[in-house]
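Question thread 4412

I'm putting together a teaching handout and wanted feedback from people who do this every day. The idea is simple: show students a protein as raw sequence, then show them the structure tokens that encode its fold, then repeat with a second protein so they can compare. Below is the first pair exactly as I plan to print it.
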Amino acid sequence: GDHYRSSFNLREQVSDTLGYRLSGSHDSHDPALLPSVGVSWLAPFSQVQLDYSKTGDSARTLAANLRGGALGHAQGITLAPYSIQDTFALIEVGDLHGVKVDTPSGPVWTDRQGRAIASRITPYADNRVQVQPRSLPRSVDLANSLGIVRAGRGAVSQLSFIVERTRRVLLQTLQGDGPPLADSSMVVDANGSFVTMVQAGGLIFLHDFQEEERYHVTSPDGSGCALEFTLSDSPDPEQYYETTTARCHAI
């Protein structure tokens, strides 16, 4: 007859961690619009859901939901944003905090001890667990960012990613108080092993700087000098490389 009801529903996943929902309904026998709003947030250690709805002229509902899991193990307690199933894995990414890891149960982030939990592992199958390189500090490399977990039902697996910290340095070199070092000069360590070459303008890029190492430069004419420079005691882990001026003194 003359009775009808209309509604709308909008959902959006803004990011890996944030989503929202907007909805509303209208009945031709009631002039009021009944709205409903929901927000979901995937925190590093829990899932949070907040919902608000109007169900009548004076009736409203507000609901909050918190979900997650906790694992006790020999090294302490690790929290997870998902319910832990009967087959799961404990993940370690060195001691790095806030690193994103994609797991079969969804994305997780490491805690302050560098640990996270893959809350659901499919038994007797290959399960991919992958560290997202963009979430790593720029001064850190991984030997391998992908791990495969294969376990029987009810097993607790452990997966460790080997972290390699690398300090990269770009040197603007000078020959004592004079001009820059000559192009194509060879940079060696204290044992005489080749490290890199001097680039145009006297630039030297040390891909893996060793703090206790002494670096020497051998020019095309056979003369040699020792590099002297000073770096910060607390480098910024988000900088891909540090820059400083180095002077090369004859030896």
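The second pair follows. I'd like the answer to focus on this one:
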Amino acid sequence: TGGEPLVNRPNLDAAVDGLVTIDHVRAIRIATCSVSYYPDLFLKNRNEYIDYLVEKNALCLENGKYIEIGIHFVHPDEVSVQSIDIISQLVKNGVQVYVQTPFLKGLNTEGRDLGRLFELLRQAGAQIYYIFTPCSPIHGTKKYWASIADSFRALKYLRENFSDRAIPKLCTATPIGKIEWNTSGWAVEKDEQDKKLVWIRTPYTNEYFEQFMGSTEQLPLSRINAGGTLDAGF
């Protein structure tokens, strides 16, 4: 969060070329806002950047891996003819494109706006992936926070009016990892001591984190539940 990987080609080259050599890596995801905010990056010099990404994906495929481009769109007004062209060209040339959208107060909390957004992007060939709710609690974002209840209402509208293929998963980033509401995660209870804190069930286990952390003593705001997975404080 807080960077645009596609504007620094040498860094992107180093990252992709390095990741291709790691055996267990399969998908290399590149998240970008440039498709909506800076389409000229892709289309200038006769679509040179699109060709570059297609070539990088071919390199990955030769090594049993692939590139996915995660595009960030918030509102249908961001979808231009140019952005549709970029998505279509990438998909046509074998580069997977998926959409993830932060749920932002005053911008896209209405189901009809989200539905129109996902419909347009899906028609261009993008896969519909996540709505992040609420938006990440980082400096400067508080005015955009909308309640999780609002996102449930928006999702209900999408369920009532759009195809399942055009409906994203509703996701929240807890202190120990992402959960998808009503599948891998749900609210359990309010904390008895801190009424502002809610415990959310996650699919993660101590054993999972021990694979790469060693000790799980440093995991923030977590507890083991009766089912053996971890609840996260939120």
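Top answer:
Good format. For the second protein you could add a caption like this: The chain is about 35% helix and 20% strand. The mean pLDDT is 94.
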